[in-house]
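Writing this down once: the sequence line spells out the residues, with the fold written below as integer tokens. This is how one looks:
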Amino acid sequence: MRFCDFQRGDSFGKGKKPAKKGQQMDELKQELDMDEHRIDLDVLYSRLATDMNVGMTVEQAKLRLERDGPNCLTPPKTTPEWVKFCKQLFGGFSLLLWIGAILCFVAYSIEASTHEEALKDNLYLGIVLTVVVILTGCFSYYQEAKSSKIMESFAKMVPQFAMVIRGGQKIEVPAEALVVGDIIEVKFGDRVPADIRIVTASSFKVDNSALTGESEPQSRTPEYTNENPLETKNLAFFSTNAVEGTCRGVVICTGDRTVMGRIANLASGLETGDTPIAKEIAHFIHLITGVAVFLGVTFFIISFILGYTWLQAVIFLIGIIVANVPEGLLATVTVCLTLTAKRMANKNCLVKNLEAVETLGSTSTICSDKTGTLTQNRMTVAHMWFDNRIFDADTTDDQSTANYDRNSPSWMALARIAMLCNRAEFKLGEESKPVLKRECTGDASESALLKCVELSIGGVSAYRQQNPKLCELPFNSTNKYQLSIHTTDDKDNRLLLVMKGAPERIWDRCSTICINGKDEPVSDEWKQHFEQAYNDLGGMGERVLGFCDMRLDAATYTKYLNYSNIRRNSPSILVEGQRRVETAGFNSPPTETRILGLVRRKTALHLGDYKFNPDECNFPVTGLRFVGLMSMIDPPRAAVPDAVRKCRSAGIKVIMVTGDHPITAKAIAKGVGIISPDSRTMDELALERGVSVNEINPRESKACVIHGSDLREMTAAQIDDVLRNHTEIVFARTSPQQKLIIVEGCQRQGSIVAVTGDGVNDSPALKKADIGVAMGIAGSDVSKQAADMILLDDNFASIVTGVEEGRIIFDNLKKSIAYTLTSNIPEITPFLVFIIANIPLPLGTITILCIDLGTDMIPAISLAYEEAESDIMKRKPRDPVHDKLVNERLISMAYGQIGMIQAAGGFFVYFVIMAENGFWPSRLYGLRQEWDAKSINDLADSYGQEWTYSQRKRLEYTCHTAFFASIVVVQWADLMICKTRMNSIFQQGMWNHHLTFGLFFETTLAIALSYTPGLEYGLRMMPLRFTWWLPALPFSIVIFVYDEVRKFLLRRLPPGSWLEKETYY
């Protein structure tokens, strides 16, 4: 498949029918297949019908622009905000409340059409349910509003203008007007306006970090160096930044056909499934609906048997179904997730999607990027080799752990080269910061060398001023070394040539080696020592540089003038030196040393007998003295190894997916614990046994390191085998498409996958994952928009904190739902007994609302603050198939056990108050029709006393209030037992002050509702005698004791016991 050759019909013209979405996505997932980087330039010019010097004509460009379209990314269809709002308003649990509200309005309509003065309870309930669902929907919408801005972020990356050659003329055109075949020029500071093949280049480097994940600038030359288009040096890609030099190139791909365009369309076109919590809520709705319909239909049939009319039976059916709807649960779950999201934000995990709060807790596989997530994204000198020993670099501010002599002549020589052959400098205003945290100008490797020497010796800037640079040969991909020549403050006034670069290239240019400050001839033995050290450092995944120097005779290369001669013979030079110092902007008065340094530069370049010419290389580059090696690595973050250990103990597989080199990736993986110290890859096992890799059984090796080129050849089944057979996996040199394939492979295993990333290349995988985690500091805008969560400190350890919080909130949501559902039974059973026994209604609809949206809300929310019962990071991730948020055992406990005890307490209070007022239970049976008849004002009780209609209703509302009070009393015990699912409350303690406040709140609210004057008219709440609060108290104690005994047996019986299977939810 080709994406760049317009001659093969790969056009996006109007006449072309769009491919089916599935087919198009499959094509985008394929690896980049192109040959524009391999073929000869003349062949490419011929294919693209262009000319290197003249470019294309304006007419040609116009025709191609009309055919191929502008050089910009095609925005995908976006979801209107009103649709997103409607999803919040009508999706998931909200739908259940809407159904309940509609049924209430239907029931009220039926009653209103059949009774002249119908009760408005169902109308009020319907209105309340509507208000609740609208308010919660609005709250959720504003909490989770994250419109798909992925393509907007890509649009910000598009360059505005480009320098193009058309008809032999160099002109500036809008980047959107570029077409395939254009000859363009790119310079330092520009953003590459299209995918281009490099034709000529001068020290040209690009920042590919957003595209490939490589942290260091990449050199770009006309040379074809790699079969992989993403790794060859003769291609530069759309939207990457030019950080050094200039180049001329020919446009080979534009718009959606660029590598960035493919990633953009892949990221925006991916469809994601429901989050785990959304699936749990859907399962909960099915359970509740099933229970409600079963009870409703059952009592609908019973109503007919008992002789009720069909209209009455329908009203009973609706009433029972509505009574099963936990009105306050939607708001409770939303608020609990919001509170956890805020708590996670305080721990550097910013949640964009509320449902992602729990998803992270369900994660069973984490696919983590390396650079900046597992590592510090800061190159640091790790080791040094001199005097034939490898030393650890000391990175402490006080140099307290240095295991080498900092005054050693060999180290001083090595440090001098690292100081002088180095363009990196500390930024102004960084002096007060610790050395390792200072920001530098210059590339990452040179900054690491600068910080290392500054820590060890100090005074780098002053030393450079005392030994100014006369000539420099920058690093290039051909020579693979950097060279500079300096004047020195040595007594003999000799010049110093210093060089650093690829170790093997540096060694080949040396004839001597510095050992303990003395020069020894290079020999086979020293070469063997050098190669051993080089291999040892490289095997640690570190980037190794070689260092050498040479003294140049001042008499041969220049007349060197000292300061006193300048003062005596050339005062004008001294004045010029003074001026240069002042122009340089030194804060302190210019010293003699500073003036002399600048004067020397002028003297050597302009007054000396010899002029150094880096182009002609008129100075020695062989016969040098080898001084040593320094190796650098982006070190792991300090907290990462412990975080990986926690993941392992929590049953979470951590997979490294990086664009970096396999050796480096493997070294970091071992350093942070992704690969255990005792684990061996198949290659290592084969090497140990002296056999080929094919003879090793994959199941013998827990660890494996897979190169992107090997992954490209693997089938989906082979990828599944790797993921199934290996627990410690590293994928290196991966492309964006491969990262996506890895995520899909993990999901095929049934894993809930979290993906971390910071670059544009990570955006497809971030979106496809169950939860995408972007980096807040180093992350691109595109990755942040594609992700569900952002790590504010770019630290992998913060993910583990998020996992812990997610697991806690899942457990606590179970407790909160159990608490809320339990009161459903004492709310439903009065209505059922009202139908079957034909007694006056024990509990009214308005009173139920006071419970669900009043007294129960705060206590339910307070359970979100409950601490974990045990070390939840030592148990396996929950099984999404079997470990449900709401399961049959929870329903059984809430409805069949605790709820029944609560209902018994409520009815006991009801019958006590009725009996105290003259109505014994035997008198109440079958009394409902007479009780509710307004025409009967002389209804006799068990003692023959006559009751008017208004007196009966006042007694009925008093019973409603007492039943309400009894539910509050038994909910005290329910809240206490819901604190834990296994532990005793005496183990857990009462340290959750929010829960203590919840107890106080529901009691205070219940008292206020009972005794506030005037509420008897609005809410039908009557003042109660103090003694009427007490009958429910024994039932509350029974609930507490019953559950404590159950938990005691749970802890004592072996795992998997019948009690655990039946009651542990």
Observations:
- Confidence is low (pLDDT under 50) at residues 1-19, 146-152, 559-608.
- The chain has five domains: 6-38+158-269, 360-375+634-794, 390-557, 559-608, 805-1063.
